[in-house]
Amino acid sequence: MALFGQLPGITAIERSHPGTVAWYGSAAMDCAETASSLGISREAVALYRDADAIDLHIDSFIWHRVFGYDPRREHRGGPFGRRLFGHADFPTAHASGLGGATWVITTNPFRSARGRKRVLEKNLRALLGLIEDAQGVRHVRSAQELQAARAAGDHGAFIGIQGGNALDESIEALDLLADRSVLRVTLVHLTSSSLGASSAPGSSRTAGLTDFGRAYVERLNELRVGVDLAHISRKGFFDAVDVHDETQPLFVTHTGLAGAYEHWRNITDEQLRAVAATGGTVGVMLHAPFLGRRDVTVRTVVDHLAHIVGTVGEDHASIGTDYDGAITPPQDLPGLWALPRLAQEMLERGWSDTRIRKILGGNALRVIGALRG
Fold this sequence. Notes:
With about 375 residues, the protein is an alpha/beta fold. The chain has a single domain (about 35-370), classed as Alpha-Beta Barrel (TIM Barrel). Helices cover about 40% and strands about 10% of the residues. Strands 1, 2, 3, 4, 5 and 6 form a six-stranded parallel β-sheet that branches. A three-stranded parallel β-sheet has the order 7-8-9. Helix 3 crosses helix 13 (about 340-350) and helix 12 packs across helix 13 (about 340-350).
């Protein structure tokens, strides 16, 4: 424990709560040590690791762009404790047993359409370079490539785009994605765009997808790039469902469930059923204010997962943390290293190993396989 003061990126908060840190250095701790540090059972740690967990949404790259946050080194919070960033990085993903994740490039809506495309191309090169430089991490584009990465002991890094207006200069701009280096596109983010309306306060409650947005969805389908309906207005959501190729699964990569806690950011049961009807999956995020009014913990997160299971079954629930997405996660889930606590909470509810494996990674892997093979 004396090592705490010597590790870069560990804050005073985490030094005073040593149970939040599951491993040190470049080597993964064994199950007993990790279980002890997190205050959970060895069974939960082993199950989490063996499940090849997948996080559908990590936003660390935005901070690399803003001030040089380096996802190739270990982080344990930042100057604001667990708030905003410091939740995720490549070494932690690899050593803690996170099998795969989608590392996201978020779009700046205030650039011109041409400028957004130019910057996206630059950022794709930069993120691919960071992934290539990270030990034990491999860029993957399909379920098969992820499985190959895991067989080699690597973390599989997908790439996603948050804000489809990164490529809204024309439909032809989407040809940039023809090489499938990008797994999925979140159509809109916190602002409305040429594609359609955001769910964020201040956006139109009655606006949906534009005609261009509908054509955009159809082109993503042709390219077999996943359509992610996080952040979109409810009308826009169903506009996308209407034009989407029903043979391809839909994603909602990071959200809460209105049936568990009513909030403008959370999806309704009707939306949940629409995703499930395509064979898709919904990732529960970890921003505490979206999950509950107070005392939000790992139990609250699993309450949202339980709502998915109770509404559409266990084949459509996943994890999409939104770590490093300017969020405030629950105190007992301050970063990637703490995610085995999800397995512990699910075990304590009497959930089967099969269900837990599906939620931690199996459902996401199935959906990615249906999309890409």
